[in-house]
Amino acid sequence: MDDYVPIPFTLLKLPQKSIDVVLRRMCIEALVELSFTSKAAMQQTKHLGIKTERFIIAINSNEILIDVSGCRDFRFYTFECSTPSHHTVQKPIRVHVGFRGERWETPFFGVRQFLNHLMEIFHQTKLDSLHISTADPECSNELKGMEFGWLSMMSMTSDNNSSQDEDALRQFSGKTDSICLNRNPFSIEPSKQMQMILTRNMNVVSTKCDLNDVFVTNARSFTAFLKIEDVNIFLKHWMHRSDRKLKSAWFDLDAFRWDVEDVLEPLFKASTGFSMGPQSDSRTLISTYSQQSFQQFSFEYCYHSNTPSLVSLFFSHLQPFLAIFSHFQPFSAYTGFST
């Protein structure tokens, strides 16, 4: 028997139904490669109506990483290396695709053109998230004007380069629904500058801030790092409905307090004007992400005729934190924990 020899055929000359069957069996990076071959191929890829599960961008010191659907990465290497004098050498942009280690040379388009192309064929109007570990002006310029569902800045740059972090935060914070910051990058009037960011209408805010920053935060949910005494002050204001938009708040406590009473006593200290119901039975919860054990204590309060609210306190052997919800909801809807 003769060896099997595959017969090449022109994909786009097949009947439309057959084209759809073939394309739907292709992996993400193969579809992207095909869509760049011609306008007809791009339209056929777009015709599939595929919407990616997620669309994430990460900016590092020497690359822009584009994660499409969580299954393949497209890496744009914006710089190849740095000289001993620390002056970065500009190099042509390349794309690293998939697990096969393939590389495309990209002299005809840059990062922005590539992103626009992906968003068109996958029917996206904005990106899911942008993660910045090292702010870079040239990378930021490539993404100017784009909208993101989530902005995360875990900057590791030194104070000498903080201006790049400031510029990136100003540029992208107005184009996102939620932000997560590991530090305040502003060197001049840091509290005032940060509050200009926090007062914007957002869904989720997670950052290191003081009590005044918390009071001006305009979000449905936020995470902050405060002393337990400051949480007590916040709780009094919040129970009086000082912020009707806020639905949940998370606080990482500032010290290890192994006894529940050591946290509850300063937390509810001098909290008058509302009635607090009895403590519910404690429950031990298991995180579905880290498999760590958390202990929950729930308290119910009612201020005047407002709807009862739930205050939940969680403990682990690593770091205690406090979660506050503005109305009753299934516990798993907020935390991802299971009993």
Automatic annotation (TrEMBL):
User: Which intervals hold domain Sdz-33 F-box?
Assistant: 195-248
Tell me the domain of life. Answer: Eukaryota
Q: Which InterPro entries match?
A: F-box_Sdz-33 (IPR012885), Zygotic_Embryogenesis-Asso (IPR053222)
Which Pfam family is one of those matched by this entry? FBA_2
- Protein known as: F-box associated domain-containing protein
Q: What is the lineage of its organism?
A: Eukaryota, Metazoa, Ecdysozoa, Nematoda, Chromadorea
